[in-house]
Amino acid sequence: MSLSRKDIQKERMWHYFINAASETIDEVGISQVRARTVAERAGFTTSTIYNYFREFSHVIFFAAMRYTKPYIEQLPQYMDQGTNTLEKWLYSWECFCKESFKHPQIYSHIFISNLKQVPEDLLDHYYRMYKHELVGLPDQVQSIVLQHTLSTRSSLYIQHAVDEGFIRHEDIPYITETTLLIWKGMLTDILNQRKPYSQTEAMRKTLHLVHKTIMNIVPVDKHQEVNVQFNI
């Protein structure tokens, strides 16, 4: 189905503003991006932004999503290191921590900040515009990437560990919520300069707690089947 002239114009304007926002983030950092700067770089007035976006934070969200490309590209390789669901799940956390602690403000804006709209709707719109970023990803990995809520991402994937006898179905909410809080707490501490951790230290401590959380749930006789060697 071909796009209408109006839809083509809208998509073109979105690209103008998102490109301008991405360039501004590269220059001054995401926390210093302002609507006026982005509008001027795109060649329009600030008010024009709101003809195409409900909130300026949505422009930043779409621009920030471009920084997740390394995570998306590397995720399948990380997960391939695992021989069962839990190992693959833990390696996916390693990939996520590596990229999120490298760009804490970016990932905070995507996964923590108030966007004043259902994030899944924004994410769906983003991947409709940038379908090429999902090309080549296994279906199972796509289902993870297309879920904005991290706890939902975890539960969608880790539920396969129930069939493998590593966890019970009723353990899933505890695992996903606890590991998400661990990551959010570490990221918030770094952003607020509460902890003087380097990227590597933050990654190591977070993965240690995530690993410990899951192993406290796994039956002792299954521990030997979960052998993960993080590359940190």
From TrEMBL:
Q: Which Pfam families match?
A: TetR_N (PF00440)
**InterPro entries from the UniProt entry:** Homeodomain-like_sf, HTH_TetR
Superkingdom classification of source: Bacteria
**UniProt KW keywords:** DNA-binding
Q: Where does this protein bind DNA?
A: 34-53
GO MF terms listed in the record are:
DNA binding
Q: Does the keyword Heme apply?
A: no
Q: Which organism is it from?
A: Salicibibacter halophilus
| Domain named HTH tetR-type: residues | 11-71
- The molecule here is called TetR/AcrR family transcriptional regulator
